[in-house]
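Quiz preparation item.
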């Protein structure tokens, strides 16, 4: 039976770069030959969630949300727009970071759909955060003597938003690779505005857990941290704030290794993509054979 991958993401009417990581990761997976078909779909751009299954010929479809956390979009909007018969969020049996996959039928197109949890809560995302730190410092062994800040949006409307940030910060902290690891936020405590106060290390890598670079990662966070008074004038990497060198990485979702997390989600749902995962890891700088 042929199999297809559909990557669903938010997109934006206002930021033309919002969808770029989605297309880039889809191209990487397409080139790896993992699926007979690879499609992208968006909430705020075309092609839309509602029509994408009608563009797929395969009878078996793996749908992977390129979202950071479980919540309104992954639990309500995407299943509704894909018309997944019998969807019940309880079948994910998740406390906010455990969603794996559910197999359902999209009745109007007669396809079997393996609906996966968001990429942002997969364990492999911790590796992408570390790789993002390596990319911004240019040091494949970065960690000793460095602090790491994993930064999320944070919102009282979705408690799971913060759970994903704390989850990965704790996993990386337990690995012992970095001298210090903290979870910080834009809109809730502890806030990224005072980033230097949370670390004793002289160097701190700041990795926003966002899918794409946009207003928050390119304007709000750099200004909030004091890297610049006006994002339009740019800033240095690293930039010194209150005596601490801040290595600001930008959105983790732009890291090429994100394609591996998408494949891992599909593999967990039963897709036969293990050979492709090895090829993608080799191409994007990830560890092969984990």
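Solution:
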């Amino acid at each position: 039976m042929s199999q297809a991958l559909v990557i669903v993401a938010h997109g934006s009417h206002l930021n033309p770069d919002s969808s770029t990581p989605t297309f880039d990761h889809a191209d990487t997976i397409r080139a790896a030959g993992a699926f007979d078909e690879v499609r992208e779909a968006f909430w705020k751009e075309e092609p839309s969630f509602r029509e994408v299954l009608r563009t797929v010929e395969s009878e078996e479809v793996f749908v992977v949300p390129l979202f950071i956390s479980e919540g309104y979009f992954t639990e309500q909007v995407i299943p509704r727009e894909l018309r997944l018969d019998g969807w019940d969020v309880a079948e994910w049996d998740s406390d906010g970071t455990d969603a794996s996959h559910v197999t359902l039928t999209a009745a109007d197109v007669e396809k079997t759909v393996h609906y996966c949890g968001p990429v942002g809560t997969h364990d492999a995302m911790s590796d992408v955060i570390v790789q993002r730190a390596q990319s911004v410092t240019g040091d494949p062994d970065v960690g000793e003597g460095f602090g790491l800040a994993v930064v999320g949006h944070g919102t009282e409307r979705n408690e799971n938003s913060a759970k994903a940030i704390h989850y990965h910060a704790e996993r990386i902290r337990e690995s012992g690779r970095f001298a210090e690891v903290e979870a910080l936020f834009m809109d809730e405590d502890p806030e990224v505005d005072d980033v230097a106060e949370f670390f004793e290390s002289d160097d701190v890598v700041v990795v926003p857990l966002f899918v794409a670079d946009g207003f928050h990662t390119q304007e709000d966070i750099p200004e909030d941290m004091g890297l610049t008074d006006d994002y339009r004038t740019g800033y240095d990497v690293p930039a010194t704030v209150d005596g601490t060198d801040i290595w600001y990485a930008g959105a983790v979702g732009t890291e090429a290794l994100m394609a591996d997390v998408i494949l891992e989600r599909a593999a967990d749902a039963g897709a036969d993509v293990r050979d492709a995962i090895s090829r993608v890891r080799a191409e994007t700088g990830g560890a092969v054979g984990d």
